[in-house]
Amino acid sequence: MSAMTDARETLNRLWKPGCDFLGSEVAILGGAMSWVSERNLVSAISNAGGFGVIACGAMTPERLEEEIVATQALTKRPFGVNLITMHPELERLVDVCVAHKVSHVVLAGGVPTSAIIKRVRDGGARAIGFAPALALGKRLVKLGIEALIIEGSEAGGHVGPVSLTVLAQEILPHIKDVPVFVAGGLGRGDAIVSYLEQGASGAQLGTIFAASEESIAHENFKKAFLRANARDAVTSVQLDEQFPVIPVRGLANAGSRGFLKHQAETIRTFQSGGVSKEDAQLSIEHFWAGALRRAVIEGDVENGSVMAGQSVGMVKEVRPVSEIIATLVEQAVEAIAKREDRVHASA
Ligand SMILES: Cc1cc2nc3c(=O)[nH]c(=O)nc-3n(C[C@H](O)[C@H](O)[C@H](O)COP(=O)(O)O)c2cc1C
């Protein structure tokens, strides 16, 4: 057997728990991205052998139902739905997923209750959660979560403070009962292999798919991705500890600069007694309302929120999803084969 065939078999073995859990050919999830992860991208990822995930975001249950049905018309393969736990109609959203036999529900944006996890599982879907630290990961598994995603601060969108390099070392050696998928900053198959070797069962990527051919993101949004380097994908800055800002990673632009000015002006007005603390906080929070849609759908990449991870620097062209996944797999296989060569050469 050739070295490449051996390497491919090694890869299949490494991510088998992830593939079995997801029901996909390769253990690569297309991370849910609000406005981007809809029927076209999600079905393209699942049809290419990966695992697409619909971003429910602020959708109503009726709107989510429409999206699930439309996605099912485009793929017979499994895909997931990402629900934000603070959505006011979370239970109804779960019921919509269950009614339409969605196989996996990703519960994002906070620690889900055991009741909501039970609702997902009793309905026959598998429940996936996010672990921002080892203790929380263990707690989620106790609550009934069946797989974890650990997302490093390199990722696009809302991020925690810890890099994937560190989270992986903190969590992977200690969580063995459920599959763990790594996310954040991944743009090549070699990097995915390194985490599989540390015990991960698969990987979740967002940024690379946002710029794919099948992504409905505006041409300007994709062009901004092609132009950007890793260092352009920065997290939002908080000016005053009295006024918390949730860190979001995206491309620096007039909007992000305007956000600093807006915070400074609002804080000054608060200090001079012109606005209450609550109203000042609300004004800061509302600055970005609708901003992701403005960038993704309308193409206003100067004033909108161009959420992107540091892996944006590796996005060099707009490619079909099937090609992106095939390249990631090729790179992973090659990395394993080369590693074998290095080990034998030094023996
Ligand atoms: C434009 C954009 C929007 C995102 N929206 C969401 C979201 O609505 N819910 C969520 O759980 N994660 C969201 N994410 C995070 C992705 O699901 C994924 O975990 C992340 O992109 C992985 O890191 P990477 O961008 O370095 O590949 C978003 C990411 C991007 C780039």
Automatic annotation (TrEMBL):
It comes from the Bacteria. GO terms for molecular function: dioxygenase activity; nitronate monooxygenase activity. The keyword Oxidoreductase applies. Keywords: Dioxygenase, Flavoprotein, FMN, Oxidoreductase. The keyword Cytoplasm does not apply. PANTHER family: 2-NITROPROPANE DIOXYGENASE (PTHR32332), 2-NITROPROPANE DIOXYGENASE-LIKE PROTEIN (PTHR32332:SF20). This is 2-nitropropane dioxygenase. It comes from Gluconobacter cerinus.
